[in-house]
Amino acid sequence: MPEPDRFDPAAYVASVAPAVGLRLDAARQARVAAALALVARVGAPALAVPLDETAEPAPVYQP
């Protein structure tokens, strides 16, 4: 995951969209980049929590 202060959503969208077969005009590319910037900002606190390799994200169901 890129560092939030160094992440450039517009550059990411511009480079990744063609790689996955998306053809976006400039206006749509800007909207996707804005949405991606919001997702990165909302998710940053959760991704900043240190976890060790044995941490379970949720309890494991055992009948």
Break the fold down into its secondary structure elements and pairings.
Layout: H1 9-19, H2 26-47
Write a structural description.
About 50% of the residues lie in helices and about 0% in strands. It is mostly helical and about 60 residues long. It has a domain at about 10-45. Helix 1 packs across helix 2 (about 25-45). The radius of gyration is 16 Å and the shape is elongated. The N and C termini lie far apart (about 35 Å).
- As a percent range, the share of strand residues is under 5%
Tell me the number of helical segments per DSSP (H or I, 4 or more residues long).
2
Span of the ends, CA to CA: 35 Å
Largest beta-sheet characterization? none
Summarize the structure.
The protein has 63 residues and is mostly helical. It has helices at residues 9-19, 26-47. Helices cover 52% and strands 0% of the residues.
List keywords for this structure.
mainly alpha; 2 helices; 63 residues; elongated; single chain
